[in-house]
């Protein structure tokens, strides 16, 4: 380690700012003492962000979780994390601290997180800002599944197309639809239908990278955006997703209930708009439906 790098590392350990670096797989690469202390991470440990949140929640420390459903909260948080080059937001810790947090993500997926303590701000301002943040999150989130809603996904699709047009970066879109969903609702009831939607959401998320975007855009219709991903790699992702969904049993107490999904894929091409790219994926989805469902097609 050079003298300058050693000095930087020493200062990072001494500062009261919380500093952490995550790799493209959203696994902690390095964190200073203040960050490790706030989130109960041992020196040299390299958990994923989701593992940190899950462990802290079980131990009753770390971030305040503003939901009675941890899995829904986690899905919602992941739908926002790492989707923009820079993001700033406020977060409460269970030890009473209030943090101003920033996330800076580079093109390769590395993320630098820095947080400062703003607990000294007046209580009434703190409440106002918290209410504002909750309202913003609600406007971008599907209430049932906790993932991004149609409004948020359209904005992310626009961003993917802009990157393709301005920087020549590849990107793929997948529209997914749960097969015979109306029949599931009609035969088993809407509660089972909701359980299927939640099961689908939770089974897709483990296949996603941090900068992938996944949201519910209609009743049983979902959109998946894969930045910096060509059609062949996107096809490999969807093949894995379809295989997992095919074997899914969303209700442990009713192992006979299963479901499948169909998917339409399209990759960004020069001259595409958000509308033309979406239309190709949508046409591919309907082709998959006509060809027998539980499969994907591309356009």
- Nearest-integer average pLDDT: 92
Q: Strand content of the residues, in percent?
A: 15-25%
Number of helices: 10
**Portion of residues within helices:** 40-55%
> In total, how many beta strands?
10
In short:
The chain has ten helices and ten strands. With 299 residues, it is α+β, with helices and mostly antiparallel strands.
Q: How would you describe this structure in keywords?
A:
alpha+beta; 10 helices; five-stranded mixed beta sheet; 299 residues; five-stranded antiparallel beta sheet
Please explain how this structure is put together.
The structure is a single chain. With 299 residues, the protein is of the alpha+beta class. The chain has ten helices and ten strands. The strands form two sheets. Strands 2-1-5-4-3 form a five-stranded antiparallel beta sheet. Strands 7-8-6-9-10 form a five-stranded mixed beta sheet, with helices on both faces. The longest helix is centred in the middle third of the chain and has 18 residues. It is globular. The model has no long low-confidence stretch (mean pLDDT 92).
Summarize the SSE layout with pairings.
Blueprint: H1 3-14, E1 18-22, E2 28-31, H2 33-38, H3 49-59, H4 70-80, E3 86-92, E4 98-105, E5 111-117, H5 123-140, H6 150-167, E6 171-178, H7 181-188, H8 190-204, E7 213-216, E8 221-227, H9 231-246, E9 261-267, H10 274-290, E10 296-298
Parallel strand pairs: 9-10
Antiparallel strand pairs: 1-2, 1-5, 3-4, 4-5, 6-8, 6-9, 7-8
């Amino acid at each position: 380690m050079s003298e300058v790098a050693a000095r930087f590392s020493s200062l990072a350990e001494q500062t009261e700012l919380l500093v952490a670096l995550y790799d493209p797989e959203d696994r902690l690469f390095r964190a200073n003492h203040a960050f490790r202390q706030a989130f109960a991470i041992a020196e040299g440990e390299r958990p994923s962000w989701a593992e940190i949140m899950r462990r802290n929640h079980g131990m009753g420390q770390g971030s305040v979780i503003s939901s009675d459903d941890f899995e829904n909260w986690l899905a919602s948080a992941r739908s926002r994390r790492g989707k923009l080059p820079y993001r700033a937001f406020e977060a409460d810790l269970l030890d009473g601290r209030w943090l101003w947090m920033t996330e800076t993500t580079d093109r390769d997926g590395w993320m630098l997180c820095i947080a400062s303590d703003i607990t000294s701000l007046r209580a009434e301002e703190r409440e106002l800002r918290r209410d504002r943040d909750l309202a913003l999150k609600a406007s971008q989130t599907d209430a049932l599944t906790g993932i991004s809603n149609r409004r948020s996904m359209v904005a992310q699709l626009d961003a993917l197309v802009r990157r393709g047009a301005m920087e020549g970066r590849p990107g793929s879109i997948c529209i997914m639809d749960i097969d015979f969903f109306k029949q599931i609702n009609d035969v088993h009831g809407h509660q089972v239908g909701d359980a299927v939607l939640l099961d689908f959401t939770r089974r897709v998320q483990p296949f996603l990278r941090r900068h992938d975007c996944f949201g519910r855009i209609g009743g049983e219709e979902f959109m998946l955006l894969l930045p910096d991903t060509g059609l062949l790699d996107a096809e490999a992702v969807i093949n894995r997703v379809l295989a997992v969904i095919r074997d899914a049993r969303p209700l442990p107490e009713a192992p006979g209930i299963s479901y499948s999904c169909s998917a339409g894929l399209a990759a960004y091409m020069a001259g595409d708009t958000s509308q033309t790219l979406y239309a190709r994926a949508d046409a591919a989805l309907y082709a998959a439906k006509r060809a027998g469902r539980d499969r994907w097609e591309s356009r």
